[in-house]
Design a protein that fits this description.
Blueprint: H1 14-25, H2 31-43, H3 45-65, H4 74-97
Helix pairs in contact: 1-2, 1-3, 2-3
Length: 103
Amino acid sequence: MSGGQEKSETGTPCSEVLDKLYTYLDGELEESNCAEVKSHLNGCSPCLDEYGLEEAVKKLVAKHCGCDPVPLDLRDKVLGRLAEARNEQLAREARAESPGAPA
């Protein structure tokens, strides 16, 4: 981490904590890792500053972008396009495996 410690007093590298920061902020980090991140943040002010910044950005985005309703058919459209892309990829792979097949 530039300008900060490589490890906090807990011995956890800053890079590991910062890699887990978004998952931690989203409340999706495993309980055992949460304690490690909390402990690191308590002893490492550069990481704590980064945490505060990311938390503020997340709240700002949620406040200003979280109110838009999601179109009802969005999920179906996304899944349909994923299926199309998957089928196209399978077709390309099948053509590549078949000798003499037109490209």
